[in-house]
Amino acid sequence: MEASTTPKPLPNRPEQKMPAIPKGSRIQKRPLPAPLSHRLSSSASRSSAISTIPTDTDGYRPPPRAPHTLIIKVTSNAPFMSLVKRVRKGLESRSSMSRQQSTKGLPLTARIAALDTSSGGNSQGDGQGPVEDALDDVVLVATGRAIQKAVEVGCFFTRERDLNVLLRTRTVRGVDDVARGEEGDDGDDGSEEEEGNGARVRAVSCVEVGVRWRAT
C-alpha cells in the first residue's frame, strides 16, 4: 500500500495567499483593534452571555470578563519590569476582600464557579470553562512580536506560589490600507484588492496571559 505523496495543508494555514499590491503602492498598517472581551453582568445568565459573544476567525469564542478584570495591552517595546509592576499593581488592588466583593456583580453561575475554585474543585467538567476564565484578575493581551514578551511576563509569575497563570491563543483580524503611488491615484480601483477599497484584511495571532490569585 503506497502512501500518498500529496502534501496536506496545515490546519491554520490559508489555502490562498493574499493578492499582490499594485505597482507603486505600499502597505500602511492600522493599529490592531483590541480583542473583543465581553463583560459579565449580573442580569445576564451564563448561557445567554456566552452565546452572544462572537467567535474569532478560527472559531474560538473568547471568554467573558468580570468587571474587576484589568486588561493590559502589551507592545513589543514595553519594558519588561514595567509590565511586571503593572501586573503586580493590578493584583495588589484585588485583595481577598475586594475579590469577594467583586463576585457580587457576577451571575449566579460565575459565583458558583468562584466557590468551586476557592474550595479546590474542578469546574471544567461542568462546562463552566468560560465563566472560570472570567475570574482572571489581570489579563495581558499581545500580538505579533509582543507575544514573546507577554509569555516571558507570564513565566515570571509562574514562580509565585500564590498565583495561577493561564495562557490562551486566539486569532484577530487587522486591516491594512494600500497607499497608492502618484501614478495610481486616478487609476484602477484595484479589482484584486480585497473589497475594492484599497484595504486588506489579515489574520494576526494573539496570545492572552491571565493571572489570578490562587485559592487558599
UniProtKB/TrEMBL annotation:
One of its GO terms (molecular function) is RNA binding. One of its GO terms (cellular component) is ribonuclease MRP complex. Residues 1-65, 178-198 are annotated as: Disordered. Residues 35-49 have a biased composition (Low complexity). The keyword tRNA processing applies. Its main location: nucleus. It comes from the Eukaryota. It holds the Pfam family Rpp20. The keyword tRNA processing applies. It is found in: Nucleus. InterPro entries: Alba-like_dom_sf (IPR036882), Pop7/Rpp20 (IPR014612), RNase_P/MRP_Pop7_fungi (IPR020241). Keywords: Nucleus, tRNA processing. GO terms for biological process: intronic box C/D snoRNA processing; nuclear-transcribed mRNA catabolic process, RNase MRP-dependent; rRNA processing; tRNA 5'-leader removal. Residues 183-196 have a biased composition (Acidic residues). This is WGS project CABT00000000 data, contig 2.72. It comes from Sordaria macrospora (strain ATCC MYA-333 / DSM 997 / K(L3346) / K-hell).
